[in-house]
Each structure stands twice: as C-alpha cells, then as structure tokens.
Write a structure and sequence with these properties.
Blueprint: H1 11-15, H2 18-23, H3 31-52, E1 57-60, H4 65-70, E2 84-88, H5 93-106, E3 111-116, E4 122-127, E5 139-145
Parallel strand pairs: 3-5
Antiparallel strand pairs: 1-2, 2-4, 3-4
The structure holds zinc ion.
Residues 60, 79, 84, 86, 125 line the site of zinc ion.
Length: 147
C-alpha cells in the first residue's frame, strides 16, 4: 500500500530507484528525511503538478548514502536529506523549460538546476528547505553537466 503525501505524490515514488532495485538497495528514509520529502512535495512538487495539470514523473528523490554513491551523486547532495527531486522530462526540452520557469518564477526553492548528462538526457533538479531546518538560497543554475 502506497502512502500519499499530497493528492498526486506518494512516499514510495519519491524513494523509487531503478538502480536501487537492480542492486537490492532498500533506500528507506528515516523520519527526518520523510519530513523533508513532505515539505518538498507540499511546497514545490504538488503546486507544480497542479499548475501544469499533467502528471509529473520523479526520476530520483530520496537517496540513501549507498544509492547516492552508486548513481554518482555529490557527497553533500540534498537527495540524501530528502530535500531534492529530479523531474523527468522524457526528452521534451520545451516541457522541461516550462517546468523550470514555473518553479523559478512562481514557487519557493533552495536550488533549481537545469541539468543534463553526457548523453544529452535532461532533467530539472529542484530542492527545498523548510524554514525550521535552514534557509532557501534561491539559487538557479542554468546548464549543468553532471559528470
Ligand atoms: Zn538531483
């Protein structure tokens, strides 16, 4: 049974990972990490979902240490805390830019990154820090290649 955070998002989909499945990594968030996922979803992902009026696919949300290592995440990645999500755009760059701009101009966030890998796969990375746990830097990075 999946656990809904908001109308359109579940804890399970924010912890799902093909790499974790393949390698048998449990990728289970603790209470604080779940709280961070809830805030990220309530303040950013669900408002984006409602504004776009279409399903939003998350390719990577929470990552435990081992999973973060396996996918080559940076050491201090906000994915480790449950504060970040990668929004899959399935090769539709216009859609990606629409999501990116909507978050940029209408929603609160800590870091917003238009990110891609060497193979030309693009996604939108967004993070959010609830005010009890720190400050949102409101940092926008326009074209980052993930090494
Ligand atoms: Zn990310």
């Amino acid at each position: 049974m999946d656990t809904n955070i908001t109308m359109h998002f579940t804890i399970e989909e924010l912890c799902a990972s093909k790499t974790a499945d393949k390698l048998g990594i449990a990728n289970k968030p603790n209470t604080q990490q779940i709280i961070n996922l809830v805030y990220l979803t309530a303040y950013v992902l669900e408002p984006l979902r409602l504004a776009m009026n279409e399903p939003i696919t998350i390719s990577s949300g929470f990552r435990c240490q081992l999973l973060n290592q396996k996918v080559g995440g940076v050491r201090n990645s906000q994915h480790l805390k449950g504060q970040a999500a990668d929004i899959c755009i399935k090769g539709d760059l216009n859609k990606g830019k629409k999501y990116f701009d909507y978050i940029r101009y209408h929603l609160p966030f800590d870091q917003l990154i238009w990110e891609h890998d060497k193979n030309g796969t693009y996604w939108v990375h967004v993070s959010y820090v609830y005010r009890d746990f720190g400050k949102n830097r409101h940092q926008v990075i326009d074209n980052l290649e993930k090494k």
